[in-house]
Amino acid sequence: MKYKLVIFDLDGTLADTSPGILNCIRYTQKKMNLPEISLEKMYTHIGPPMAESYNRNFGLTGEMLNQAIGYHKEYAMKQGYKEIKLYDGIVELLDYLKQNGIVTAVATLKAHSTTLKIFEHLRITNKFDIIKGVDGINPKIKAQLLEECIEEAKCEKTECVLIGDSKYDAFGAEKAGIDFIAVTYGFGFKTKDEVGKFSKIGIANTVKEIYLLLPN
Fold this sequence. Notes:
By secondary structure, the chain is α/β, with parallel strands linked by helices. It has ten helices and eight strands. It is globular.
């Protein structure tokens, strides 16, 4: 296979994390007496950094923003990590990559501790060689997480590809200088037209189509 390292986004790429994330928001709203927002706006929390989403949708800054992020993480660690479902075919895809000697990684803007808890619950931790999330002390962008994956895997950038569902993934791959495969079954990109302006090697509408975009 051309690639020695295949990196996955989590939300909307590996798993449908929406029930847990929406409940994290509802929990935060209740704890902080925040105003109601539309379901459409709630879905915009899936993918971007939490700080960006709570600032955009609730106008929170400073200590109030930190408090919201704290409540969001609190629910995620208590219950939200269980409210998740892998997309059909993901386990088989990961097994296929491992059987072919490919290094598998995850680069997500979700908290690293939450990510580990999710993977433990889904029993897929051992299917990844590298797992990179963020923490509240040293915020990172997607490109930084990708660079860490590449460095740890000791691969050339021409041997790496990111699979993701949003503009944050597309921008991250471009900034890190690696190939990108867009998926439209998640929460970010919904149509091929939405992906059109971003650099990519292909678009997968289903997990099965990802196989066809991983050249030998």
